[in-house]
Amino acid sequence: MKRFWIGVLILIVVCLAGFAVYAWKPAIDPIEPPQRTSFDQALIEKGAVLASVGNCTACHTKPGGKSFAGGLAVPTPFGTIYSTNITPDPKTGIGRWSEAAFSRAMREGVERDGDHLYPAFPFDHFTLVSDEDNKALYAYLMTRHAVESRPPANELTFPLNLRFVLAGWKLLFFHKGAYREDTAQSAEWNRGAYLVEGLGHCGACHTPRNALGAERKGAHLAGGEAEGWDAFALDRSSSAPVPWTHDSLDAYLRQGWHADHGVANGPMAEVTGNLGRLPDSDMSAIATYLISRMSEPTPERAAAAEDIRKKLSIDQGGTPIPASATTGSPTSRGGAIYQAACATCHDGSRPQPFGGIDFHLSSTIAAREPQNAINVVLFGLPATSGRESPIMPGFAATLTDDQVADLLGYLRETYAQKPAWADAKTKIADTRSGKYRVSVGPSDGIERSPDNVGAKD
Amino acid sequence: MLKLNVNGTSHDVDVDPATPLLYVLRNDLKLNGAKFGCGLGQCGACTVMVDGKAVFSCLTPAMLVEGREIKTVEGLGTIDAPGPMQKAFIEQQAAQCGYCIAGMMMRAQALLEAKPDAADADIRQALEPNLCRCGTHMRILRAVARARDLMQGKSADNMAPAAATGRG
To answer: Residue A155 above 50 pLDDT?
Structure first.
């Protein structure tokens, strides 16, 4: 028996030693910050486009702060993580990182000094990025304005504040690797897959996560969550009433809206704001790949979409509803609110994106969860500074929680022909109070919203 | 018949419940401070306060604000005894054509009631939904900063820098 326990002990020690060897990463020597002139201009320009694909600025810029200087609070179920400064500042940024150190961070999620990075930085996707593209990204970032700014320390609970624990996470969920071509598919499809699954990291928001914060492998692109918004499913369970096509997706991602689907809102607005910089071929490749993930719509879905198109061509103007928000059923109260407050824009003659979407077309109203609908009703869509943009006023100060619930119930029954969301009321209250935090930004997305928008202080 | 509480007075108004609050205020209650600008919640000329918050009265059906406290620019003071917000706008001569001013004042009032020590950046941010076509923005910002100081009981000689130094 004693021998058995000694055996167990040895096994534990060996395992721990093995883990330590696995977990330990060497520091890569700091370098003298490279001169701007040491980078080829074409490479920097290529890096700029790639940084748009990666949407780097969204997390690595604080609202109102300097680009790429970090410090944005990223709330996670495990605590708050602050994004890092990726400007070439030698003290607080990545000015002393060699290209090898940068590539390792992208490929393995390890800092220059050997610390493991939290998967809030989506290295599980970036691991697919080619050396060539990392080189261009490095050239782009190292030639930005250096900003001296140290982000606040992360607020994570024990033991997650210990970075070596992340090696365990990687052991369980991380697969290092370069992108592998699927030879059964076209070159365009492969280019799209490389961008979507790698640098684009669409799955980081659009795939649900497990209890340990890793993307669930069996539910790839089945719909996730980001900054208080539901990121809709991009697989066959897509809630879009009129199914996405290659062309509608291509146009939506480029311009941030499409007549069949409405305007990008929440964190997606940043994504589309950035993607407008891509060359046509890459945009088309992304659409080709994503459409293949959604697969052909079922005959029922196609028929339902056809119905909606018919409705839209006949039913301009809507059905007047006897207006009373205080009497009658919840649906009729909601209908009265819709007619009085929403129909001016959403049932008007102004086309999108400056007119409101007809809710027959709305993925938000047809979605599994009410969260995005709640966010939009309460907080609207703020204006973009300095140029014209779609906007919607928020109704948080006008509508009570009960009135929002009535309105959503009406929209749901009338336009999506689905029962009212069961748990809407609690979610409305939590969203309004700020217990559930939502980030709210303008539709072009690049300019981040101020800290105080989106919830009560 | 709707019962509306406006500037502390209860009114019974006989209107279609879906009528925008703005029309009720102007047509039925003859409170013409709030203005019709765009009717889409994009310009802010119609801004009034409901339960202490700024709302676009052109997009607010009257039925939704029954039993709630509505405040318009007329509720901030009178010609003989202007309130601190109105006084500050007069002092700074912040109106050109004046069409946007009632909305500006109400949104600023809502901000200062929620955040009496609002920084200049907060003021700028809060007034973002309200447009002015004349270009008096700098005076408007100064007036709001001045109102903040007046409400906090500060006299002219210890005003905040933005209120004291800017040029119009």
So the answer is: yes
